[in-house]
Design a protein that fits this description.
Elements (H helix, E strand, L loop, with lengths): L3 H12 L1 H19 L11 H36 L12 H16 L38 E13 L19 E13 L9 E9 L1 H6 L15 E10 L5 E9 L19 H5 L3 E10 L4 E8 L13 E11 L2 E10 L5 E3 L13 E3 L8 E11 L4 E12 L14 E15 L2 E13 L8 E15 L2 E12 L15 E14 L6
Antiparallel strand pairs: 1-2, 1-18, 2-3, 3-4, 4-5, 5-6, 6-7, 7-8, 8-9, 9-12, 10-11, 12-13, 13-14, 14-15, 15-16, 16-17, 17-18
Helix pairs in contact: 1-3, 1-4, 2-3, 3-4
Length: about 525
């Protein structure tokens, strides 16, 4: 277990009067230097003396900057160690001693050649591990002045499909789309500046650039938005503002990852490496306006008005809406409920006979009459931290879509349904090792998801190991099966009712953003 007494000491040190002294040290040193009696008072300081004074102040400022950076890293380490009980936090139990070593290393940084140390020699017992701990100088920037973070992410995998499907293509997989192939799932660069009322900054913005196989899954196609190529590598891009209403109304405008469904984009934040059927089926992203209001420490409300599902640019003039809440009845329980109402059938079709200058892809002709059926999505998921090592989660979904709002000759208003749910279990063996399992059921009536009426099931077992800070390995076995012969084999004319895969996934990430991305 972490040494909590050490955490209390380091917290007091980095946030107490010592930190205020460190911040003010260059100015105090300058005042003391200028106030020291000089034997030749009548003689003005020479140019050489002035330059020495200026260099001294510069050196002191540089040394304090080093200590402040170490202090920031120390605070982040302490914050992470508090979350060590969470199965999503794989921080080592030695976080306390590592923090102390970082603090000692910071003071050693101050004792550089060319000047005396402004701090007394380190004599505490915490100095012992410092001799074997060298501060790591980052060659990639993670935090920028003002609090913005730069974050880098790489996700690659090798997967084997025991069906040996034609073209090495896995059926109904969102990200692990190829078998018997070394694959780049995604490479991402994220800039994130969050609003921070503690420094009186009400605005922020975030941009996620994405490349790789996942981009083809996430970023739309001409079937669901007019010009997907414009937004191909922009996974998220939105600006935020906290309006001064009550506890603060958080408004965001732009494109963001959908919160329909419990799973997310970045594997480092997931229990399993491969994604569920529901992650693949539910919307990936939306573009528009979203609002979040934290009523109290137990209830948050959400409202969106967006162009559509998986639509950066809409296919019609209807604006979809979402109403939802996040309820935290106890510290260990979080329950999310969403209702989404949309109409995503296009009312135009691409044309080539426009006579006025237009951007490519904007020449369209109307569809008359245009389908006007609605889409209703009921989505709910809950997470329970049963013990310090065990996490249990569940998701339930009901999706219904109609092509026409009202039946007419040739126009059917018959609904198409997808419903079912998923269950998750994760056990954190130690700070580096976790075991996870997932099981799900998806009823695909009318083939809305898979283009075939069937009942799909899936079971996944995952071994996750943290090889280093920002480096996770996933070893996973998964079995998909159906009540029909749906999954392709090496003989396309002889499909089978199951699909088994074994996967090794490797994920690297680095950056100043803490927690889930």
């Amino acid at each position: 277990m972490p040494d909590f007494r050490l955490k209390r000491f380091t917290k007091k040190f980095v946030r107490g009067p010592t930190m205020h002294f460190i911040r003010a040290f260059p100015l105090l040193s300058l005042l003391i230097f200028m106030g020291t009696p000089v034997t030749h008072a009548q003689t003005a300081p020479s140019v050489q003396e002035f330059e020495q004074l200026r260099q001294m102040v510069f050196n002191l400022q540089r040394r304090v900057s080093v200590l402040e950076e170490q202090n920031r890293q120390l605070q982040a380490s302490i914050s992470d160690s508090r979350e060590a009980a969470s199965p999503h936090s794989l921080l080592s139990d030695s976080a306390g001693s590592t923090s102390a070593a970082a603090l000692v290393s910071a003071t050693e940084e101050l004792r550089i050649s060319g000047g005396s140390s402004p701090l007394p020699a380190q004599t505490s017992a915490a100095a012992a591990p410092a001799s074997s701990t060298t501060p790591v100088t980052s060659w990639l920037p993670g935090t920028l002045p003002g609090g913005a973070t730069l974050n880098y992410y790489f996700d690659g995998y090798y997967e084997y499909n025991f069906n040996q499907p034609t073209g090495r293509v896995n059926d109904l997989r969102a990200y692990d789309v190829l078998s018997n192939t070394f694959s780049i799932s995604q490479a991402d660069f994220i800039f994130d500046l969050e609003p921070d009322l503690t420094v009186h900054r009400r605005y922020g913005f975030r941009t996620d650039f994405q490349f790789g196989q996942a981009t083809e899954t996430l970023q739309g196609n001409p079937a669901n938005e007019p010009r997907p190529e414009i937004y191909r590598n922009i996974f998220q891009a939105y600006g935020s503002y906290i309006a001064p209403l009550g506890s603060g109304l958080n408004l965001s405008v732009g494109k963001w990852a959908s919160s329909l469904g419990i799973e997310g984009n970045y594997a480092k934040d997931q229990m399993n490496y491969t994604r569920s059927f529901y992650f693949y089926f539910l919307p990936f992203y939306h573009a528009g306006l979203k609002a979040n209001y934290q009523v109290n420490n137990k209830l948050a409300l959400n409202y969106w008005v967006v162009n559509g599902t998986n639509q950066s640019e809409p296919t019609n003039g209807y604006k979809d809406e979402l109403w939802g809440y996040v309820l935290t009845p106890a510290k260990a329980v979080s329950w999310t409920m969403n209702y989404y109402l949309g109409q995503d059938h296009p009312n135009t079709v691409a044309a080539t006979n426009c006579t006025v200058p237009l951007q490519p892809g904007l020449c369209e002709a109307p569809i008359t009459p245009a389908p006007n059926g609605k889409t209703d999505i009921f989505d709910s998921y809950v997470t329970w931290q049963a013990t310090s090592k065990l996490t249990v989660a569940g998701e339930g979904d009901y999706y219904i879509e109609r092509e026409w709002a009202n039946a007419a000759p040739g126009d059917s208003s018959a609904p198409e349904h997808v419903d079912g749910g998923a269950a998750y279990l994760q056990y954190q063996i130690d700070p580096r090792t976790a075991l996870a399992a997932r099981s799900e059921y998806l009823s695909d009536r009318s083939g809305l998801f898979s283009n075939a009426t069937q009942a799909l099931k899936e079971a996944t077992g995952t071994y996750k190991y943290t090889l280093g800070d920002g480096f996770d390995a996933f070893l996973e076995y998964r079995r998909d099966w159906s009540n029909t012969r749906y999954f392709i084999t090496s003989n396309p004319a002889a499909p089978v009712n199951h699909q088994d895969t074994a996967t090794l996934g490797l994920v690297w990430w680095y950056g100043g953003k803490q927690g889930s991305w």
